[in-house]
Amino acid sequence: MKHFLNTQDWSRTELDAVLADAARFKREKIGDALKGKSIALVFFNPSMRTRTSFELGAFQLGGHAVVLAPGKDAWPIEFDLGTVMDGDTEEHIAEVAQVLSRYVDLIGVRAFPKFVDWASDREDKVLKGFAKYATVPVINMETITHPCQELAHALALQEHFGTTDLRGKKYVLTWTYHPKALNTAVANSALTIATRMGMDVTLLCPTADYLLDERYMGWAAQNVAENGGSLQVSHDIDSAYAGADVVYAKSWGALPFFGNWEPEKPIRDQYKHFIVDERKMALTNNGVFSHCLPLRRNIKATDAVMDAPYCIAVNEAENRLHVQKAVMAALANQ
Ligand code: CP
Q1: Which residues form the Aspartate/ornithine carbamoyltransferase carbamoyl-P binding domain (predicted)?
Q2: Both 308 and 180 in a single domain?
Q3: For atom 7 of ligand 1, which residue has the closest CA?
Q4: Is it the case that residue 78 has pLDDT exceeding 90?
Q5: Which residues make up each annotated binding site for N(2)-acetyl-L-ornithine?
Q6: What is the pLDDT of residue 186?
Q7: CA separation (Å) from 224 to 35, 44, 244?
Q8: Domain that holds residue 132
Q9: pLDDT tens-digit profile of 198-244?
Q10: Which residues line ligand 1 (CB under 6 A)?
Q11: What is the pLDDT of residues 271-291, one digit of tens each?
């Protein structure tokens, strides 16, 4: 039984098939690939796009989605084994995942890091707990990576460039300022899928403290070795943007400060000029701009960039619906 926990677990052939199915679902909105099937969408964190697109995607393919928010409208869940559960948690993931598997055909999980201890958060304990005990496929709806966003992003780029072959494109993943230290999931994912697609990738971030976890830097390096393309790190804004075909922006907290964010804040505040603006985009090769959304305008990117014809963030958001239909259909009918 296959899960969809990370794109790196899937072969390029499998990813290409999902992207092709997603393009088909975009043309043919209604289908029966999930007829009589159901998915539990388990949200430990807020969502607009993910929740809406999964619920509608299941409905449009003849299936049904149940949304659960443990700790809010469902019992709080314990994930550690051997815990004497005399605290806030009412049931263990072992039972939750098995019971849900008796009801539904798929389980989606959103569980962000707790931002206290990266060594613990990087284990992705919640997602792995569901995958361990579920007897149905599990889909990552964003934990420490965001693989559904990766597919939506890849599809948006394929549509923009009019080809499924993105090799040779210069891709810049730029860190942008945000008043809070955010999850690295989308940045990890962008680096993963851009290198998987064989693009020439630059990770632009203020200092070495903002490099991504070695696991994802390692996946990117592995992808370059296997698929071609290239990977470089830059701290220089203008040279990174120069000639770029794609600019993808995300803000994230510096991993060395994980769990001790107070001293990171004044450092982060020095880099507000990483905002994506028209001057920087003018350095590109008529490049496109995208972001996973939600986005704070005039903090991460200017109004002018968000409203420009080269901004494909809304197309990417729409594609969440189509790629998730393809993932659900593939997993429910394996
Ligand atoms: N990009 C994304 O996952 O959006 P939501 O957090 O609104 O689901």
Answers
A1: 2-159
A2: yes
A3: 48
A4: yes
A5: 142, 250, 293
A6: 98
A7: 39, 34, 18
A8: 7-145+320-332
A9: 999 999 999 999 999 999 999 999 999 999 999 999 999 999 999 99
A10: 47-50, 142, 149, 292-294
A11: 999 999 999 999 999 999 999
**Ligand 1 mean position, distance from CA 142 (Å):** 8
User: Which ligand 1 atom lies nearest to the CA of residue 317?
Assistant: 1
Q: What is the C-alpha separation between 182 and 177, in angstroms, rounded?
A: 10
Closest by alpha carbon to 268, among 184, 177, 203, 173? 177
pLDDT, position 259: 86
Length of the chain: 334
Shortest CA distance to 253 belongs to which of 114, 112, 115, 110?
115
128 and 183 in a single domain? The answer is no
Atom of ligand 1 lying closest to residue 293 CA: 1
CA of 225 relative to ligand 1 center, distance in Å: 31
What confidence tens digit (pLDDT) does each residue in 135-190 have?
999 999 999 999 999 999 999 999 999 999 999 999 999 999 999 999 999 999 99
pLDDT reading at 313 higher than 90 = yes
- Closest residue by Cα to residue 58 from 305, 333, 324: 324
Cβ-based neighbour number of residue 175 at 10 Å: 24
- Domain CATH number, residue 196: 3.40.50.1370
CA contacts within 13 A on the Cβ side of 128 = 11
Q: What's the pLDDT band for 115 if we cut at 50, 70, 90?
A: confident
Tell me the average pLDDT across 52-79: 98
In a shared domain, residues 68 and 193: no
Whether 40 and 179 map to the same domain: the answer is no
Residues 198 and 133 grouped into a single domain: no
> Distances in Å between the alpha carbon of 106 and those of 82, 134, 172, 246?
27, 9, 34, 34
